[in-house]
Amino acid sequence: MTLRIALRETEVAGKRFEPGHGILLYVGGANRDPGVFPAPDTFDVTRPNADQHIAFSAGVHYCLGASLARLEAAVALRSLYERFPGLSVSGTPQRRPTRVLRGYERLPVSTGARVSA
Ligand code: HEM
């Protein structure tokens, strides 16, 4: 989530805001908007409009590190799958009890490698 302060009287989704009012925005919720992404809870990076997510925000506060973050993710995920091509989820994931920076506390995986006797 992120926060904006109204500079002038404005209306968002039928709610009125006076100057100085804080508006808490759930960016993660917007990324699951069924009006933008069909089957929004399905992780599918091949959707034709996958680039319409706002995980890096938008406008003047667009994430300054977005290019670096994309590069890091590409290098990290490629290295991970090259090293463990059979990687798959093998247990129930557990989320961290946070609201702002969401993520996993535990994500049990299997590498698919056989253990020899
Ligand atoms: C996956 C990784 C990342 C995600 C999802 C992410 C997400 C975001 C989001 C959503 C915002 C905007 C917040 C808002 O609108 O209030 C933001 C801003 C920002 N990010 Fe990132 N970020 C990531 C990585 C990085 C990295 C690696 C850097 C720096 C090396 C960085 C630097 C910044 C800075 C400086 C801003 C403030 C921009 C401004 O307010 O003008 N971010 N980021």
Structure characterization notes:
The structure is a single chain. The protein has a two-stranded antiparallel ribbon with strand order 1-4. Strands 2-3 form a two-stranded antiparallel ribbon. The chain has a two-stranded antiparallel sheet with strand order 5-8. With 117 residues, the chain is of the alpha+beta class. Strand 2 and strand 3 form a beta hairpin. The radius of gyration is 19 Å and the shape is elongated. The protein has one domain (2-85). The chain is built from two helices and eight strands. The chain binds protoporphyrin IX containing FE (HEM). Protoporphyrin IX containing FE is lined by residues 2, 27, 55-57, 61, 63-65, 68-69. Residues 2, 27, 55-57, 61, 63-65, 68-69 line the site of protoporphyrin IX containing FE.
**What is the global morphology?**
elongated
* Widest beta sheet: strand line-up: 1-4
Strands, total number: 8
Number of helices: 2
Arithmetic mean of pLDDT? 92
Quickly count the domains. 1
Q: List the quaternary state of the chains.
A: single chain
Strand content: 15-25%
Name the bound molecules: protoporphyrin IX containing FE
Order of helices and strands: EEEEHHEEEE
Q: What brief labels describe this structure?
A:
single chain; 117 residues; alpha+beta; two-stranded antiparallel ribbon; two-stranded antiparallel sheet; 2 helices; 8 strands; binds protoporphyrin IX containing FE
